[in-house]
Amino acid sequence: MGVSRIFVLLFAVFATVGGGRAGAQYKWHDTFSCRHTGLSGQFDIELGIEHYVDAAIPEGYGLRDSLGVTLSVTEKKSGRRIDLIEMSPCSLGKWAWRDVDYRGNATSYSTGFNVGRKTFDNYLGTIIVADLNFDGRDDIAAVEDSGVSSGPYYAFFMRDDAGGFVRDDFLGEEMMYFPFRIDPSLRRLTPLSPANTYEVCRTVFELSRDTCEWKMVVREILGDKGAGM
Rounded distance, CA 23 to CA 20, Å? Predict the structure, then answer.
């Protein structure tokens, strides 16, 4: 079983999300879990969240809360766990996981779950399932940073030949936003992001058939917030 990891910012990765760290003392501690069975025909996702303030944090340092997120991915037919994705979202990304109205929120372009609902500021859910690299296998995107007023930045995990998930650093660092358009025929992903108060930036990323590498092929500024897109 492969293990995909996002870098840890300031806080240790937890041995078990939901059960707490062995022997740990907290000023405040909360856990959350839910199972997503309708996001993919290939796998299910067990979401686990541990949110706490460590008792060792001195007074006067503010809340300084820590957050650990796990996505335990199990094969749909057998129930076998195929990967464990562990995340420690940066401080600006915590709102999506700790807010009760958002932390279990999800969308799937593979099954159609929550697709077409009204969204705002590029937020499509804390977890999104879609085939993002056009290989017929479902991939996972998860919120890593709130992105301030522009909407959340996502981390992207692609299904590999071994059956696990590998983080796509290019999409996470260059695309960041979840694409509003996925075009399998052209192998393109197109996100929109605010350029200023009345314009948006439209960027197109294309996956080469020859090298299987991403490249940016279009970047343009559109007026009136991309009217007609």
Answer: 9
Q: What percent of the chain has pLDDT over 70?
A: 77
For residues 52 and 29, the answer to whether their CB atoms sit within 8 Å is yes
Read off the pLDDT of each residue in 38-45 and give the average, rounded to a whole number: 97
Identify the top-confidence range among 14-28, 40-54, 166-180.
166-180
The predicted structure's pLDDT at residue 162: 92
Structure tokens at 101: 């109205």
Is it the case that residue 98 has pLDDT exceeding 90?
A: no
Greatest mean pLDDT among 15-29, 34-48, 85-99 lies in 34-48
H-type alpha helices, the chain: 95-98, 169-170
Output the six-digit token pair for 113: 């779950």
Q: Provide the 3-class DSSP secondary structure of residue 30.
A: strand
Q: What strand order describes the sheet that includes 66-75?
A: 2-5, 81-87, 66-75, 43-54, 26-36
**Residue 37 structure tokens:** 């069975």
Between 28 and 70, residue with greater pLDDT: 70
User: Under a CB-based contact definition with an 8 Å cutoff, are residues 89 and 155 in contact?
Assistant: no
| Closest CA relative to residue 48, chosen from 23, 67, 63 | 67
Burial class of residue 158 (count of CB atoms within 10 Å of its CB; 0-12, 13-18, 19+): buried
Tabulate helix, strand, coil % of the chain (nearest 5).
10, 45, 50
Q: What is d(CA 202, CA 189) in angstroms, rounded to the nearest whole number?
A: 11
The pLDDT value recorded for residue 58 is 65
Calculate the CA 118 to chain-centre distance: 19
